[in-house]
Each structure stands twice: as C-alpha cells, then as structure tokens.
Amino acid sequence: MGVGGLFLTEALMTVEDIDFDFENSQIRVVLTREIPESTARLTKLSSVKVGQEIEISYWTARELVQLGFARFREEDVLNYNSLSKIHWRETIPASRQIPSLQPNFYCMLRRHMAGLQELSKQDQVKLRELERTESLVRDIVNCRIRKIVSLAASPTPSEELISGLTYEERVLYSILNKTIDEWKSKLLGVETKS
Questions:
Q1: 116/110 Cα distance (integer angstroms)
Q2: What are the percentages of helix, strand and coil residues in the chain, rounded to 5?
Q3: Residue 4, pLDDT score
Q4: Strand, helix or coil at 78?
Q5: In what order do the strands lie in the sheet with 26-31?
Q6: How many whole angstroms separate alpha carbon 100 and alpha carbon 95?
Q7: CA-based, 20 to 30 A from 119: which of 6, 19, 96, 193?
Q8: At what angle do helices 167-188 and 124-153 cross, to 10 degrees?
Q9: Which of 119, 118, 113, 115 is closest to 133 using CA atoms?
Q10: Which parts of the chain have pLDDT scores under 50?
Q11: In degrees rounded to 5, what are phi and psi of residue 186?
Q12: What per-residue confidence (pLDDT) applies to 193?
C-alpha cells in the first residue's frame, strides 16, 4: 500500500469521531488535592497522593481539574505562548516541512478556544487574548492547509512528511489525495498513482 492510502480508514472519521476518541483517551494529570473516599466513582483514585501523576481518561481528568482536585501537565495545555511558538515554526519562510504537532492538537485547541470564549464574555483582557489567539490560529491552520495541499498533490510524499500530520489533517490529506488522483486520472485519461 502506498503512502497515499495509509490513512484510508482515517478519511472516514469525522471531527466528532476524533473528539469522542480524545475524550476517552488516557491523559496524565497531577493531583492537587486529596480525593475523598466518599466520592463513589473516584474510589480507585482515593489512594493517590497529592503531587502524584495519574493516568485517567480525558473526560475524567477534565472533571477533576474543574473540581480543583487536579491540574493538567504543562505539556498538555495550550496557551497563547505555546501557540506563538507553533505559529513561529509554521511561518518560517521557505519551509515546506510540516512541523509535528501533538496528535490531539486540534482537540486541545477546540477546548482552549471554547474556554477563552466563555471567559471573554465577562473579561476584556480575555476578549483581547481571544482575538489575538484567533488570529494566530487562523495563520497556523492556513499555513498547514497550504502544506497539506502541496503534499496531497505530490506524486510520492515520504512517510516522514506525512507523519507530522494530526488526525484531522490526515483525514484532509486522504480526501485531497484521492480527489487529486481522480482528477488527474480523468484529465489525462490514465491511471495515476500517488
């Protein structure tokens, strides 16, 4: 199977499917407060000590963080500074490489943006941060789309180039690659292999 067909099953996934998988994926959080034994659904976590990392599903981690029992690790949180670094890597002139992002980057980004939107309703500082973040995110996404389109149109992209794509980007790559191959085939009247 060629590189172009690597993500065929992923092309059938929707953003909602990817989000569902993310919500149920395992993530590590740091316990910030002792969890009372009386919390029935969290009894297996009652033996974990404050300051320890635990691995649990994202949705459980989110609940613990919201209740003040845990915090996400620094590397699992998006903020303006981390997005600025990603933006800088993406916009280096003449770079055709697609820098690797965390596989769940867009899932984390959607949650970060939703949180900022909620906070910005009552806080002007958060509103300005939201506007600046939206601008960065548009640039990042547009840069990556241009590179993905270029990859999808190339005859034989290396697996190394494609490995830097997130799940959502792999879906886009697969759809574009298939569409471009079909278009070339109809245009030229011959089978093409990407």
A1: 10
A2: 60, 5, 30
A3: 41
A4: coil
A5: 53-57, 26-31, 70-72
A6: 13
A7: 19
A8: 40
A9: 113
A10: 1-8, 40, 194
A11: -70, -40
A12: 57
Show me where the domains of the chain are located. 3-188
SS3 state of residue 87: helix
Cβ–Cβ under 8 Å, residues 178 and 10:
no
Residue with tokens 């407060």: 33
What does DSSP assign to residue 153?
H
Burial class of residue 102 (count of CB atoms within 10 Å of its CB; 0-12, 13-18, 19+): middle
Cβ burial of 61 (10 Å; 0-12, 13-18, 19+) is: buried
Domain 3-188: CATH architecture, name and number where available: Up-down Bundle (1.20)
Neighbours of 127 (CB within 10 A): 15
The answer, as to whether pTM is greater than 0.85, is: no
